[in-house]
Here is the input.
Amino acid sequence: MLQALCYPFDGAAILQKRRRLLRALKEQETGGVPLRIAVLGGSTTNDIVSILELFLRNRGIVPTFWQSEYAQYWNDAMFDPPSLTEFQPELIFIHTSARNVQSMPHIGDSAELVEHKLCETYHHFEAMWQHLAERYGCPIIQNNFEMPLTRLMGNREAGSLHGSIDYLTRLNVMFYDYARAHKHFYIHDINYLSACYGLDKWLEPSYWHLYKYALCVPAIPDFAYNLSNIICSLMGKNKKVLALDLDNTLWGGVIGDDGQAGIEIGQETSVGQAYASLQGFLKDHKDLGVLLTVCSKNDHENAILGLEHPEGILKPDDFVCIKANWDMKSQNIADMAQELTLLTESFVFVDDNPAERAIVQAQLPETAVIPFDSVEECILRLDRAGYFEVTNLSADDAKRSEMYKENAKRQAAQAAFTDYKDFLKSLEMKAVIADFDPVTLPRITQLTNKSNQFNVTTKRYTQAEMEAVAASPAHIRLYGRLEDKFGDNGIVSVVIGKKEGSTLQVELWLMSCRVLKRDMEFAMLDALVAESRRQGITEIIGHYYPTKKNGMVAELFGTFGFTKISEDADGNTAWKLSIADYQPKNEVIAVAVHV
Here is the structure.
C-alpha cells in the first residue's frame, strides 16, 4: 500500500501527483482483483475516474472503466450503446447530483403539481435502475443529492412544500427506500460528504460554469475515496480487526502509574466522557462483526484492571485477543494474525504514540495505521477512513467476535490431547452441506470475496454472478456450515464445479481459515464426489492458481488424492481425480447433506 493514498491523505498532492502514484502502484502490483466499472455521468467524470483508480489499486482492485459522454447518463443507461454492452460491466456507478434534477418546485406550483414533479423525477431514476439491473445484473451505486447552495426562502426551504431543500430531502428518502428494497443497489452519500467538506466550497460555481464539474476539483479525492470504500466493501476488501492500545488511547492516563481509580473514563470529567465515547464507538463496531484486540505495552494484570473499570464500556470479554506485554507491537500484531488465522493486512492499528505508529507502519506496511492527536480526532479518523464500510450485514457478521472467542476455547481444549484425531472427535462436530439457496446466497457471495488464503482459484463473484451460478444446471454447487460443542461457525466452505460432459471442472474451492485443520475440507470432498456420481460425473479436475496469499493450498488436491496433470511456468497447476473407486475421507464430522 502507498501511504500517500491512505486516510488521512493530502488531496491536493494526489491531484498533482496522480500519474506518478499510478506508476508506483503498477510497479508494486502483484495480482489484484480485476473489476469492470461503468461510470454514467450527469456531469464531468474524467478526474473522478482517474483518482478512483488510485484508491482502488491501493486496496488490491484493478479497475477498467467505461464512461458515458458528458451528461448522457440516462440515454446510455436506457438505450444500451454497443460499447457498454460489449464492456459488460461488473459494477455501475451513476454520478448525478442536484444539477441533474430538471423539475424543481416553484412558488406558484400547486401541491398536486409539486407532487407530480417529485414522482416524475424519482421515476426517471427508478426506470434507469431497473433497466440496468435487468440488463447487466451487477451492483449499482447511485449518488444521492447534495443540498442547494442558496435558499430562496431561507430557513423555510426546509419545511415548505415549495422549498428546494424539502424537495431534495424527499427525493433522497425515496432513493433510500429503493435501496432498502433492492439488494444490489447502494447509495453514495454525497449529501453527507458535501456537508463535511463545506457546501460553499463543494459547490463553488466556477467549477460548474467552466468545466461542468458538479463539485469542486479539490474535493474529488474525498469523493473518490468515499466511493472506493463502497466498492472495496463489495469486493471483500474491508479490514477485519482493530488492534487497540490502552493507555491514553482507550482511557486517559497510564494504568500502571495511576491505578484503576486514577485513569480517566466515564462521565465524571470531560476527558473521561471523550474516552467513553470512543469506547462506545468501538463497541458498536464489535456489534457489526469487527474483531477487537488489545495491543499494548503493559503488564497483563494492569491491562485487565483498566478494562474492568466500572465506568468503562469495553470489558475484557469484548476482545478476541489481549496482547498486553513488553514485546514489539508489530510482533504482537503478527502473532495475533497467526492466532486468528488472518493476514496482517486485515488489521487497523490504533495508538496515541506516534513512534509506535511509525514502527508498525514500517514493519507491517499492509496494516492500516490511524494517526490522531486527540481522542475526539481518533473517532473521526476511524470513521472517515471507511475501513469497515458496511454494504451487506449477515447474521454471521454480527456474531463473528463470538466465533473467534469460541475458536480460542477450541485451541485451549486441544492442549489436553496428545492425539489430534481424538481432539477432533471431542469437538462433536456437525456439518450441513447443501446446494445454494436464496437465504444463504449473500453470505456465500461475501465469503468468496473475502477468503484469500484457503482459496485455490481466488475467483470472485458479484451477487448477480453468484445468482446465475445458483440457477445454472451446468454447475454443481455446495456450501458447508460447521458447528461443534463450542458454537456455530456459520457457513465456512464453498465449492463450485462446472460440468463438461462426464468431467467436473472445479472453478472455486474455498474455506474460512477459522476452521483450518478440522477436516471440513474432507467432508466437502466426500459430498462433492457423491453429488458428482449422482449426476454422472466420472472425473473431477481441480485447478490451483497461485497468489501471494494462497500458498497454503498449493498441494490441496494432492492431499485429496488427485494426480497432478499439468503445471505452467507461473505455477498454475491442474489435478485429476477418477472417482469410480473413491473412498470417503471424513472420519470426525457428522454430516447431513441436502442437495
The CA atoms of residues 557 and 575 lie 7 Å apart. The chain is about 40% helix and 20% strand. Residues 111-136 form the longest helix (26 residues). The first strand starts at residue 33 and ends at 41.
